[in-house]
Task: inverse folding
């Protein structure tokens, strides 16, 4: 099986802080990490490769420093990695990103399965997976909490939807987006780290993918961010002390008052 | 301080730190409380190739040396000494085979140890033979194509969990120290059983048990080197592992210092952070300095071994005795800095203090280490005189 | 024409505001002038922040000629078991409000096995038209048929805006449709406004784990598509006098083909309600000290008609199962009331619950971060306060 794990390098949002005066992001010293959801996608790929044979290719679209997460993927066991990087890719929204990744899938050829994490913790859109599927006209399974089986070119999976779980199947090739806790991502191995350090990472630009400027990056993005603001900062309100009974009365007022107004 | 560590060794440190953060810290308190063996963590360490570090490449290992093992042991100890001891004792158990094993023995045992399929343990100590290793009484009598072992080994780390045991027994009781031999004994061999699991002050995640040999028959092919080489095997094995023990002590101390620093930064008394008080600052400074000195000594001893030095028992002993004394002092100071909170099991430093004590005792007590150092000094001085 | 960023050196004063504004650390001051590195993603934060307008991002200004011919708002109406999902009604409410500025008709797209009841309900809640596809094959949502049918509805209605709920269904369907239409899609919007002058839908949504709110537009293509967070928009009260047109999409067998196949649907157990849908959440953290103690929270949640949530620490300790975890690696919830008990309020937890209407916290540590962002805090031993609270609530109810 040839499996493609699509990864994204993101700022560690738990470390992102807002400058309270300017309302802007403070990015100094915020580390870049592999999108946590993508680690589950990668692990799923590694598992199925281990079970069925084949290879896992890690891919990402990003600036040159995104190479770091590809090396991390190799240290976890990915067989090879491809970096899609080009100045013209900058400013891409999910349309342009999925369009570009789909072009890479076509160029690599022979891919049976594309795995993505549910969403990236910076953009939080969860749109790239279905976008790639649409570009390739492949079936898609989203919100997959568990892959049950891959056999005879058919994948059987559980989708976690509102109100319950769907057991679904679709033929390969397909695009699957994986939820957190679908598996337990493995630690890198020492030999993996050594391999990652010396690995040669293929890098493709716009021309390699046969894409025009209009299809990629900012030009290829139908959506555009026009404003970034801090959410209405909720600052700390009243802090109560006193006996448990006194505070219980105050808290009950708040809870029941609000509840009554529902 | 930059010790000029290679990229490979830095990868080891990074990997161990990652594993410590994700898999060791969350469980260390529970394992300590429940006296429970870290099966899951050992599997993770094995899957990450960390058990391959010290095994030669020809047998599925990475053929890295003593310094690499030290860095791994140090980083794991920083999170939990019990788990680090399990890891290090595993290396110790494999060492006789690595240093003295025949081709046959190496190819039979090293691959399964490299993959973590089986764990190893080293068995020298007996109820009546601790520091006085020469006083062991376990017998190995030759019967045809086998040796029959009778006796008891005590306080064996990984006892009952390991699959492969390297055991020192007397083949010729009349020859004293020259009458001992080293054997590889597998778990499950008839006549080989275990005593109860010990209930220890510290390193409680590590399993410590008695090994009981009752007419236990071991194939002659499992004799390591030759009859009579037992003590040599044991001494060289322990010397080789000693810097790793020093590294464990350094790691324990570092973990304690980390906690003390974090606490002192956020604890406020008299309207100030306590790390603004000189009394605390001086303690922290002394702790950090002594840890760094211990680390430098441990790494130097490890480097000596890696560079092929013929004799290094003095340096290895210095590293062990110094680092373990530092660990005891630093962990005690860490508890002191955390004050009342340090005494509570809710906080990790009391465990570190309990863990540190063993480093002054096992793998040759610090009194024995001092004797070794003194003996080496006197010998060196005498040979300079000539 | 390629998009690119320009610093006007004659205007730049080297004040450095752009340096901090850049979320990607791509700007630095070199010889007192702002200089942009390769890390720039052309997001525009710097352009907006510069007090001297020294930064310009030049973009392709061409617009499609016929943007003006797209008009109205189309709502994808999700249905479950033949019943219209409440999210569809919320979207119709939002659509009616937007249509005041947008000026066009409000339509719904409904794919189901029996639409008679549902169509009426959609019209009563604000739809002027319903694009209906009926077939037994459409009883349960599936990607490819819904994609083809929604594309058909869009091509017939030519709406300026298409909205769907940010449910698993909406988030499965809309990106696929948007990709085929080569148009923009914004996910999980919490705010929508229509600018009648620019003829643009202003779509506001959280990003960076909820640390910032981004406003997004789709200027050059139509329709402007968005998935909308459920339970944020308000449904209108049903008006039985409203009339609407039903347009039959007449799905062909080819339209209904699907490579994916649903084998089975396993509903959630009774009582295992998804906390993401709860209006009141009573949540516990490390301070609860044991799984046993979560019974106190069960009791309170019951009294308040809500659900129990948990911090990651509580879930990792095995006191509550993972579906109850709130936070960056758990669920994001937006209840009316979030009562955090024994939770310190670390940022990873915060991002999961900061959109709650009202946050109340109980913690015995007055320095706990949660007191810095809750509406009212109670410094107390929860083992005393929570039972007292339960007693008080019972007393009032008599």
Result:
């Amino acid at each position: 099986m040839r499996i493609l794990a699509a990864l994204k390098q993101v700022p560690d949002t738990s470390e992102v802080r807002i400058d309270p005066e300017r309302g802007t992001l403070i990015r100094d010293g915020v580390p870049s990490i592999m999108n946590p959801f993508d680690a589950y996608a990668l692990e799923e790929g590694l598992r199925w490769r281990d079970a069925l044979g084949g290879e896992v290719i890690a891919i990402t679209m990003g600036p040159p420093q995104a190479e770091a997460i590809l090396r991390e993927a190799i240290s976890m066991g990915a067989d090879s990695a491809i970096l899609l990087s080009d100045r013209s890719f900058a400013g891409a929204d999910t349309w342009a990103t999925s369009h570009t990744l789909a072009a890479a899938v076509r160029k690599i050829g022979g891919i049976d399965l594309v795995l993505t994490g549910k969403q990236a913790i910076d953009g939080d859109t969860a749109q790239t997976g279905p976008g790639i599927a649409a570009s390739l006209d492949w079936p898609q399974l989203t919100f997959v909490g568990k892959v049950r089986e891959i056999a005879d070119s058919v994948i059987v999976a559980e989708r976690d939807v509102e109100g319950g779980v769907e057991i679904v199947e679709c033929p390969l090739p397909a695009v699957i987006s994986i939820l957190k806790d679908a598996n337990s991502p493995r630690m890198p191995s020492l030999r993996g780290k050594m391999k990652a350090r010396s690995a040669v990472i293929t890098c493709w630009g716009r021309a390699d993918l046969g894409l025009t400027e209009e299809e990629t990056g900012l030009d290829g993005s139908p959506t555009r961010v026009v404003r970034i603001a801090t959410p209405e900062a909720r600052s700390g309100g009243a802090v109560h002390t006193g006996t448990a009974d006194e505070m219980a009365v105050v808290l009950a007022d708040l809870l029941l008052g609000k509840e009554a107004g529902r | 301080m930059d010790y000029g560590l290679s990229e490979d060794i830095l990868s080891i440190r990074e990997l161990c730190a990652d594993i410590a953060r994700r898999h060791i810290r969350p469980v260390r308190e529970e394992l300590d409380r429940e006296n429970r063996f870290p099966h899951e963590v050992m599997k993770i360490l094995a899957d990450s190739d960390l058990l391959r570090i010290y095994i030669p490449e020809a047998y599925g290992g990475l053929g890295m040396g003593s310094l690499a093992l030290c860095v791994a042991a140090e980083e794991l100890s920083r999170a939990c000494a019990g788990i680090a001891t399990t890891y290090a004792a595993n290396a110790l158990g494999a060492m006789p085979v690595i240093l003295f094993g025949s081709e046959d023995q190496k190819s039979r045992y090293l691959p399964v140890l490299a993959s973590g399929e089986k764990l190893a343990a080293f068995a020298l100590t007996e109820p009546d033979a601790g520091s006085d290793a020469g006083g062991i009484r376990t017998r190995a009598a030759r019967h045809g194509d086998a040796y029959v072992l009778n006796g008891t080994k005590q306080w064996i780390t990984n006892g009952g969990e390991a699959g492969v045991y390297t055991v020192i027994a007397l083949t010729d009781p009349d020859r004293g120290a020259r009458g001992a031999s080293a054997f590889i004994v597998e778990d499950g061999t008839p006549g080989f059983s275990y005593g109860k699991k010990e209930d220890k002050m510290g390193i409680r995640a590590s399993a410590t048990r008695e090994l009981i040999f009752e007419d236990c028959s071991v194939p002659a092919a499992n004799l390591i080197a030759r009859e009579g080489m037992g003590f040599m095997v044991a001494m060289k094995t322990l010397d080789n592992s000693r810097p790793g023990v020093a590294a464990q002590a350094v790691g324990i101390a570092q973990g304690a210092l980390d906690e003390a620093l974090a606490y002192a930064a956020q604890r406020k008394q008299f309207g100030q952070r306590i790390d603004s008080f000189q009394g605390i600052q001086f303690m922290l400074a002394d702790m950090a300095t002594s840890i760094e000195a211990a680390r430098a000594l441990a790494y130097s001893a490890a480097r000596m071994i890696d560079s092929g030095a013929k004799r290094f028992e003095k340096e290895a002993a210095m590293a062990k005795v110094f680092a373990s004394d530092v660990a005891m002092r630093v962990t005690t100071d860490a508890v002191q800095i955390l004050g009342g909170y340090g005494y509570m099991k809710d906080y990790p430093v009391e465990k570190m203090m309990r863990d540190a004590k063993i480093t002054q005792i096992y793998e040759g007590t610090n009194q024995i280490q001092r004797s070794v150092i003194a003996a080496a000094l006197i010998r060196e001085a005498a040979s300079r005189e000539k | 024409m390629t998009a690119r960023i320009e610093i006007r050196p004659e205007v730049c004063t080297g004040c450095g505001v752009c340096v901090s504004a850049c979320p990607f650390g791509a700007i630095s001051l070199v010889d007192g002038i702002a200089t942009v590195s390769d890390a720039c993603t052309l997001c525009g934060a710097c352009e907006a922040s510069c007090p001297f307008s020294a930064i310009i991002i030049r973009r392709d200004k061409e617009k499609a000629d016929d943007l003006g011919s797209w008009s109205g708002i189309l709502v994808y109406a999700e249905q479950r078991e033949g019943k219209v999902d409440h999210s569809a009604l919320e979207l119709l409410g939002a659509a009616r409000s937007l249509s005041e500025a947008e000026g066009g008709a409000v339509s719904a797209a409904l794919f189901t096995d029996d639409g008679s009841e549902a169509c009426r309900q959609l019209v009563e809640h604000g739809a002027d038209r319903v694009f209906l596809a009926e077939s037994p094959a459409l009883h349960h949502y599936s990607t490819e048929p819904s994609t083809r049918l929604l594309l058909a509805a869009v091509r017939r209605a030519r709406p300026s805006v298409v909205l769907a709920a940010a449910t698993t269904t909406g988030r499965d369907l809309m990106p696929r449709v948007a990709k085929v239409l080569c148009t923009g899609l914004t996910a999980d919007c919490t705010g929508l406004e229509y600018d009648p002058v620019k003829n643009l839908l202003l779509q506001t949504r959280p990003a960076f784990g909820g640390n910032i709110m981004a406003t997004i537009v789709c200027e050059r293509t139509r329709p402007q598509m968005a998935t909308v967070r459920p339970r944020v928009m308000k449904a209108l009260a049903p008006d039985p006098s409203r009339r609407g047109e039903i347009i039959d999409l007449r799905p062909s067998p080819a339209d209904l083909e699907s490579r994916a196949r649903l084998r089975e649907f396993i509903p959630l157990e009774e009582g295992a309600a998804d906390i993401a849908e709860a209006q009141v959440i009573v949540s516990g953290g490390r301070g609860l000290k044991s799984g046993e103690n979560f019974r106190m929270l069960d009791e309170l949640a019951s009294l308040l008609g809500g659900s129990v949530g948990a911090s990651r620490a509580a879930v990792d300790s095995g006191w509550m199962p993972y579906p109850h975890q709130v936070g960056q690696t758990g669920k994001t919830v937006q209840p009316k009331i979030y009562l955090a008990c024994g939770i310190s309020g670390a940022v990873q937890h915060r991002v999961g619950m900061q959109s709650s209407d009202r946050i109340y916290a109980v913690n015995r540590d007055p320095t706990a971060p949660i007191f810095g962002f809750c509406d009212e805090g109670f410094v107390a031993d929860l083992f005393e306060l929570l039972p007292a609270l339960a007693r008080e609530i019972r007393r009032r109810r008599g």
